[in-house]
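Please complete every field before forwarding. Incomplete forms are returned to the sender.

SECTION A: IDENTIFIERS
Entry label: holo-470
Bound molecule: zinc ion
Molecule representation: SMILES string

SECTION B: INPUTS
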Amino acid sequence: MKYELTVGLETHIELSTKSKMFCSCSTAFAGAPNTQCCPVCLGLPGSLPVMNRYAVELAVMAGLALNCKVANTSYMDRKNYSYPDLPKAYQISQYDVPLCIGGYLELQSGKKIRITRIHIEEDAGKLVHKEKETLIDYNRCGVPLIEIVTEPDFCTVDEVREYVETLQHLMRYIGVSDCRMQEGSMRCDVNVSVRLKGTDALGTRTEIKNMNSVANMVRAIEYEYTRQCELLEKEQSVTQDTLRYVEETGKTSPMRSKEDARDYRFFREPDLLSVSVSDEEIKAIKDKIPELPKDKIKRYIQTFGLTEADANHLIKYRRISEYFDEVARLSKSPKTGAKFIIGQMFSLFSTEAQKEAFAVRVTPESLATLVNLLADGKINSNLAKTTLEQMLITGKSADELLSAEDMAALSEADLDSLCKRAVESNTGAVADYKGGKEKAIMALVGFVMRESRGKANPESAKEKLKEIIK
Ligand SMILES: [Zn+2]
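SECTION C: PREDICTED COMPLEX
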């Protein structure tokens, strides 16, 4: 292909505040339509906005996690446009002096996707189009948002996918947003252009608005890439359009012009002061950010010897990784702890919400105790597994469930006599082994394991048996 793809993203993320950006209305999702509104978010005359300080804090946190520079002073502006989802006929946003500038998000490959800016703004209401009428729900009006704008640094759909998924995970992890694309708390506008390979100048771009799933984004970009390449092949030009993606057809189509009013007549919001964040405040917010997922993965691999896949598994949900951190701190073998969590504990949950909540009846202390019993050789892995099963069901500790007999290690003398009995009662297998069938020894090992109720170490038993038979 002689053309190459260039993509830039603008991602809107709703911040996890309890109340709206400029009033005390609830931000809860899925409330009955128009029940979470007041004169401020409905833009009634005489009402005045008051800035939600926690929203600013979350936005700063997002900026720091994305390596941005946070402005000590930034400004709120009015973005004027008239559309039914916006009762004030303007949106309070940030224009020329945003809260954060100049960051990046690093992909697995080491490529850095540059972040131009992050600004804060309020969300608009939601229009519900019916066959003959359009309904309006203003509950979402005034919900705090950040918009994260990247440079046109993406060259493939895979890079776009990785960026969106990494950003989503990071924002959830540090508690900035739940980033639920299907509920609209994370939405992307995608700028797509193509240019001849090897040229520097960007081609004319089109903007696909409001994408709410990664799969649709990928399809929309691929469609747009092909469409633009075909136009250029025919020596026609790409027009700078705002498009919507139509899921049913898999195609993009231009939006009505009133949804694309370009002249927003920005000016400073006269009802609000500038946004001030001191260096001390920035530092205090920085201290609240937990260890970031990419650093944590590195630590899990280097310090605990976990595989990359296991480390990724554990950090996918913050609660689970914090649970593991506790187990790792208290136990002698973090690796074994990880195995229990990823294996037996994960299998209890099927939905994303369940994994996110990670409600297990076993405390990290209790799991660490079990891990240590195994690490000290007091119980074997089979017994550990069945014990954990019981712990998860009953909520009891390993100490409560295991008897003294369970935990008494098999003595050398006991192993010796068990192995002797194994040889005496399995003459056939012994003959086979002597005859050169190496595998026949496993029948004897099986006997020892059964008789010791799983307490014997299979490797030691095998060695001992070989000695006796010799
Ligand atoms: Zn309100």
